[in-house]
Amino acid sequence: MLPLLLSLLSLLLLPSSSCASDFCVADLKGIETPAGFACKKVSSVTVDDFVFTGLGVAGNTSNIIKAAVTLAFVDQFPGINGLGISAGRLDIAVGGVVPLHTHPAGSELLYVVHGYILAGFISSANGVYYKYLKKGDMMVFPQGQLHFQINAGRKTAVAFVSLSSPSPGLQITSFALFANSLPSAVVEKVTFLDDAEVKKLKGVLGGSG
User: Fold this and answer.
1) H helices present in 27-179, as ranges
2) Is residue 209 part of a domain?
3) Residue 117's CB: how many other CB atoms inside 10 A?
4) Residue 114 marked in a binding site
5) Chain-centre distance for alpha carbon 125
6) Model confidence over 61-89: pLDDT tens digits?
7) How many domains does the chain have?
8) Kind of pairing, strands 138-141 and 128-133?
9) If DSSP codes are grouped into helix, strand and coil, which group holds residue 70?
C-alpha cells in the first residue's frame, strides 16, 4: 500500500505539463482557423499574454465616422484564445456614429460609462430594437445581428463592450459595400441606389470600380 501511495504522491508533485490545458495562449505567428489559433508553448508564455492595457486610452475620433473602436480581440490579446471572450472600447465624438455592423461569430454586450448613446439592432426578421442609453446602462446585441451606436449627447460618449468570442469578427456594412472594388453597376443592383450616389459613396469611403 505504501509504495502505491508514494507513487501517487510523486505524480501529484511532478512538474505538470497539464497546465497547457488550463489555457491556450495564441501563437499569433501561426494561422487562425475557425477553432482559433494554435497554442504557444507553455515555456514561452508570460504574464503579459494575459494583460491588455489598450482600453484605458481614448481612441482617435478624427475620422469620417467621428468614432474610434479599440479592439481587445485575440489578435491584440493572445491570452483570451479559446476562452470565448473578448472586449473593446468605443469613443464616439459629438455627431459621431459606429455605423451598422455585425460580428458574425459573437454576441456583444455594451456598457455605457460616459455620455449618451442611441444604440440598436435589426433582427433577421427586420425587427428594429433601439434605445437611448445613459451612463450605467447596458444593451446586448445578439450574434450576427446588424447593430449601431450613435452619440446622442453633447459630449464625447464612451462605452466598453464584451463579446462572446475571442475572434467575433467585425464587418461594417457601409465599408463592405462602398470601400472595395466591387463594380459600381453591381453595387447599384444590390442596393437600389443610382450610379451617382454609389460613386459618391465609393469616393468618400475609398472604394473603386
Assistant:
1) 173-178
2) yes
3) 27
4) no
5) 24
6) 999 999 999 999 999 999 999 999 999 99
7) 1
8) unpaired
9) strand
